Amino acid sequence: MADILNETRLKDYYKHFYPYKSVLKWLSYNNPEYLRNREFAFILENDVHLRYLNFGDASDQFHKELVKVAPQKIDLGAVYNHCPKTRHQHKDFKAVERELVFDIDLTDYDEIRNCCSGASVCQKCWRWMAIAVRCLDKLLEDHFGFQHRMWVFSGRRGIHCWVADAEARALDNQGRSAVAEYLSLIAGTKKVNLKTPTIHPMLVDAYEAVMTSEDITPLVLEQGWLDEEESWMKVLEGVEDRAFRDQLISQFHDLASADLRWKLLKRQFDETERKSLASSRSGNLPKPPPANSKYFLMAFILQNAYPRLDVNVSTGTNHLLKSPFCVHPKTGNVAVPLKANEVGNVKLDQLPTIGGLIDELSVLLSKDAADSTEKENDSPGRKLYYKHTSLAPYVETFDAFIDGAVRG
Ligand SMILES: [Zn+2]
After folding, report:
1. How many domains does the chain have?
2. Which end of the chain is more exposed for a tag (fewer CB within 10 A), N or C?
């Protein structure tokens, strides 16, 4: 694994794959001065940080520098009130704008994640990411009106979100904290508590987004929460009403599988499920739960499936975040933008890696070399090889986001 990011490979990657023109187009938002005041940071081997870089709108210079320096990572920072390179000349130098960003990482799910832990990730735990994107994407749109949202695979076990609306970029630290706090239900010891008589509409919407996700039933079953008596007894502890809980315990004992227990919970507690059962008149509709246990399933689902945000990433205007299309040093995976509604279909072992892309490139290059010996006087000029590789659809997703974001 040590040579995933060797210099030659990285140089080839920056030369042929990293979409530097798109990145600068995005970060300018049609305003060259905005781009001139943006911080870029290159992170080199041994964690050396070259901060406060800026390339103006000279995409060729940005590209040349990338190929020359071959940074392990590119971070994107804030837009300042002056060009970052001249920060020493300005006493009032400060961050004024940046995209609103979110970071969701599977390590924050370790206390409930039964398939993997730490740095490991598999398709089973990726379901949390699919649910997180579905849920946050909806809340960011419906509760804040944000239109320009990009979701980017972090390269290993998480997802970053960039919100690029002008209103989001202009938020100060307090505003960012307020949004992050609103969207964060579970952090540290903060737990979902639905023992209040009224439920905030945000929780209702979040619950509905999770429950209508194709990933929620597989998640519940694959994580084994309802498999063994020992685990489902813990789940049912959340049912406030003692007699009602005992009734569920006895029903759970009689049911032969986790799937049947999950179906019982939905029939018993999920309003949508109950409405559809009532209208189908199948006679299968149990009596509603007692008032003090009404929100048991909602609390369980939100506690175990609601996105867990790393709030610190969101709250600071000047926080650095990895650029899309960087290569993860441990996995070799490219941090590719993903369409919000396709995160659930992602196959982690099929996402682009630097090794795979360089292999695709050498096939293209040798084909071109063969072709040009055949037609000697043909000089095709600079060719965009990435367009013929498996990276192409991800650059298209990126460009579609940029087109919307720069139009505003
Ligand atoms: Zn897993």
Report:
1. 2
2. N
Q: Are residues 328 and 229 in the same domain?
A: no
Mean pLDDT of 334-355: 97
Cα separation, 254 vs 232, whole angstroms: 13
Residue of 346, 328, 317, 399 lying closest to 128 (CA atoms)? 346
Determine the distance separating the centroid of ligand 1 and the alpha carbon of 130, expressed in angstroms: 13
- Which alpha helices (H) appear in 143-215, and where do they start and end? 166-169, 173-183, 201-211
| 144 within domain boundaries | no
Most confident of 278-282, 329-333, 364-368, 380-384: 329-333
Q: How far is the CA of 123 from the centre of ligand 1 (A)?
A: 6
Ligand 1 centroid–CA 121 distance in Å is 5
CB-based contact 261:226 (threshold 8 Å): yes
Residues with CB under 5 A from ligand 1 (ion): 115-116, 122, 124-125
Q: Are residues 296 and 329 in the same domain?
A: no
Spatial CA neighbour of 238 closest among 182, 161, 287, 298? 298
pLDDT in tens, 123-177: 999 999 999 999 999 999 999 999 999 999 999 999 999 999 999 999 999 999 9
Please give the positions annotated as active site.
Answer: 39, 103, 105
C-alpha to C-alpha distance for 380 and 386, rounded to whole angstroms? 16
CA of 224 to the centre of ligand 1 (A): 12
From 308, 127, 114, select the one nearest 214 (Cα to Cα): 127
Domain that holds residue 294: 193-305
271-324 pLDDT, tens digit per residue, is 999 999 998 877 678 999 999 999 999 999 999 999 999 999 999 999 999 999
In a domain, 340, yes or no: no
- Give the residue among 290, 207, 296, 224 at the shortest CA–CA distance from 261: 224
Here the ipTM equals 0.99
Cα of first residue to Cα of last residue in the chain, in angstroms, is 42
